[in-house]
Design brief:
This protein has about 240 residues and is mainly α. Helices cover about 50% and strands about 5% of the residues.
C-alpha cells in the first residue's frame, strides 16, 4: 500500500527504541551520522552516537523531502538478527494506552502522530494498537466534512496494515453504511473500496451484498460495488 509521503515512512528515517511511542527519529541521510551508520545497523540502536541522536531527532510526521524513498516498515528489522527479533517482540507487547488516548486530542498534530505511531505498532503485530484504533474508529459518527474524511482516510489506512480479517472489513462496511456517498466523501469511499478490493472475495462478498440491501446507492456507486463483488477488479472514480 502506498504510504503518505512523510518522513516516518521513508527508508532513511530511523527511531531509537525509546521513541517508538513519541514518533521521533532521525534521518540517516544527515552526513553527521555517516561515521556511525555501521554501528547503528549492527546494533539496531543509536548507542554509538546517542548524544547526536538526541540532538538531531525530529517528528517523523513532517512532510518528506525530495530524497523520500518509501520503506516497508516490516522490513526495517533483520529477522536473522537477535536485536531485531527482540525489538520486534518488544514492540508487539508494548503498552500503547497513552497513544490511544491521544486519538481524542483536539490537536490535529497530536492526533496524526498517534495514528502514525499506532500504524507502525499494528505492522509489528501489536494487537492492542489494532484494538484501540479499531474501537475508536467504530465509535465515530458519520463523516460530514472534508476534515472528517481526512481523519477517516488516515485511520482506514492504519487499520489496513493488519492482514485482512472480518472485524476490519465489518468496520469499513459500517463506514459505507453510516456515511453518505457524495463529492465530500469521495476520497473516503475510494480508499475503502480499494482496500476491500484487495481482500479475499469470500470475506467481502456477503457484507457487501448486505450493504446493497440496506443502502440505496447511485447507479455509478452500485456499479463500483458490483465490479468489486463479481470481477474483484475496478477503477477508482
Amino acid at each position: 500500500m502506498e504510504q503518505d509521503r512523510i518522513c516516518f515512512y521513508c527508508n532513511y528515517y530511523f527511531s531509537g527504541t525509546e521513541d517508538f511511542e513519541t514518533g521521533l527519529g532521525v534521518c540517516l541521510r544527515d552526513e553527521l551520522f555517516e561515521p556511525f551508520i555501521e554501528g547503528i545497523m549492527e546494533s539496531s540502536s543509536f548507542a554509538c552516537c546517542y548524544d547526536l541522536y538526541l540532538e538531531k531527532r525530529f517528528d517523523g510526521g513532517k512532510a518528506a523531502c525530495s530524497d523520500f524513498e518509501e520503506a516497508e516498515i516490516i522490513e526495517i528489522f533483520d529477522e536473522d538478527d537477535i536485536n531485531g527479533i527482540l525489538m520486534r517482540e518488544t514492540l508487539k507487547s508494548q503498552n500503547v494506552d497513552g497513544i490511544v488516548k491521544q486519538l481524542d486530542s483536539s490537536d490535529s498534530a497530536k492526533f496524526e502522530k498517534a495514528v502514525t505511531s499506532l500504524s507502525a505498532y499494528i505492522v509489528m503485530g501489536n494487537n492492542n494498537a489494532y484494538e484501540g484504533l479499531l474501537n475508536y474508529y467504530n465509535e465515530l459518527p458519520s463523516a460530514d466534512s472534508l476534515q472528517d474524511v481526512h481523519i477517516r482516510v488516515k485511520v482506514v489506512n492504519a487499520l489496513a496494515q493488519k492482514d485482512p480479517e472480518i472485524r476490519t472489513i465489518s468496520a469499513f462496511i459500517n463506514e459505507l453504511s453510516r456515511t453518505p456517498s457524495n463529492n465530500t466523501t469521495r476520497q473516503l469511499y475510494t480508499e475503502i473500496l480499494n482496500i476491500l478490493g484487495r481482500c479475499p472475495v469470500e470475506m467481502v462478498k456477503e457484507p457487501l451484498l448486505q450493504l446493497l440491501e440496506k443502502r440505496q446507492y447511485s447507479f455509478r456507486m452500485k456499479k463500483k460495488i458490483d465490479e468489486l463483488l463479481y470481477l474483484n477488479n475496478f477503477e477508482t472514480f
